[in-house]
Please model this.
Amino acid sequence: MTAPRMFYGGLLIAALAAPMVGIYPVFMMKVICFAMFACAFNLMLGYGGLLSFGHAAFFGAAAYVSGWLAAVHGLGTLYSLIAGTLVAVLLGVVFGLVAIRRHGIYFAMVTLALSQLVYFLCLEAPFTRGENGLQEIPRGALFGVIDLRSDVVLYYFVLACFIGVFLLIRRIVHSPFGQVLTAIRENESRAVSLGYDVARYKLLAFVLSAGLAGLAGSLKAVVLGFVTLADVAQGNSGEVILMTLLGGMGTFFGPVLGAVVVVTLQEYLSDIVGGWVTVIIGVVFVLCVLTFRKGIFGEIEALRRRL
Amino acid sequence: MTEIFGMPLVVVLGQLMLGLVNGAFYALLSLGLAVIFGLLGVVNFAHGAFYTLGAFAAILGFQWFGVSYWVSLWLVPLVVGALGIVVERVLLTRIKRLEPLYGLLLTFGLALAIVGLLQRVFGSSGFSYPVPEALQGAFNLGFMILPKYRAWVIVASIAVCFGTWLIIERTKLGATLRAATENAPLLQSFGVNVPLLVMLTYGAGVALAALAGVLAAPVIVVTPDMGVSLVTVVFAVVVIGGMGSILGSIVTGLVLGVIEGLTKVFYPEASNIVVFVIMALVLLFRPAGLFGREQT
Model:
């Protein structure tokens, strides 16, 4: 057995056993949702070289839509999740068509501005309940039989979704499409001269990433039972960038690690350091860019290669 | 009473004036962003945080040391600009050979840290700054009431913007700056101290943001997060105008402020998003921005 297989196998066993050794399942599920969000984001930044500063729009809008369908219209959990994801896909098409017209730094600024547009729409649209947020989203049942109200059952469902997304992203990156995407990241002009329709590849990467971010947001709405403006705000876009950067962009597992670290910091550090969390996150961001650009997992892989 | 599209003229003119005030801030901020981007290749995400620092510095100077508005007007940009120079020396200079994305990420983290620090120290509640005595009251123009302070903000900002434009386009220093933007290594080989130029440019851009903060302090509620959403609007302004042109970013800033103000009158629900919608439309029809040149 190779080292990566052993690593992922051990991790899977640990994840399956987590609820039995007394780790709070809701916390684990929150981590998994953000890990999925970061993996979706990494598909664009790490493999496509596209820095989106507006991914919270997909996460948040999908969370609102699926939460609203489940809470107000009593739609089943599975359908709500699908609907939320589809909304994120559509939003991804719209964002993508506008944003891929600019490169590099402008791309980041355009996505940021578009996500701010979505933020204001969510602030003013009546169905999001404005400042109060959407509350009491029911967990429902899966296929009408598996009751998701139990934390442990929901945990395994969320974990299964995450594993599916993780494998899908691996598949995408290793597919011919993913190879072309990486080629575009490395040298866009050369990809153009080889006859690839670069805009179409970028758009597809954007839409895939947006859809998966939407699934993560919809799951988060089901897990926590509420959606607020924080889910769709600029800060959330920043956090997913930090998770990816800290864990290691362009690595499969880095974003997961980053999500674990950042969510844990937010949950437990705020009790210890009070209002300093934003400052600490800002400083970690700066330090990451200055000294630690490969991220935790990137450094580990570099070390492993040297040995 | 005269009406325009069913709205009283006074209301329209009032919002037009408020829009011009906002536009003046957009112009000051996007001007600084454009100058910094031109030379450093860094999109300064911390611009909104420096704007906030400017407003807070004015308030603290007034409350703790009794520094008057007129002194703050030049002292605060100097102090915050000096802080910007420290940031450039300590942080930005280390990443100048990396992809521009890292500059955006670094300054984003910096902005988080500054805003978080202000929130920690001053809480989230708002502060206010008194309008200086000489600018209290209003001009009665007959068809509308124009508060003196707002008139001052518009005139002062436009004067500073065009002063900056003149320096960049019409002086020896400006010519050096433009040369450095085009080809820094070549300029350095002629014996010009480019790193010094870069440092001072960042300081000057930050000082402009701080000046906007001081000018804004008497007309807005000063909170630690006042720059957070503003910087996003200013980014959109920069995308619309195109970062290539100094004059372009000034004009775009003013015009968008006015458009936003008019939207508040005729369709208030859209006033927060109108700038972003315009940005999307401009990108669809003129991807390089209104005044920009297409470059890859």
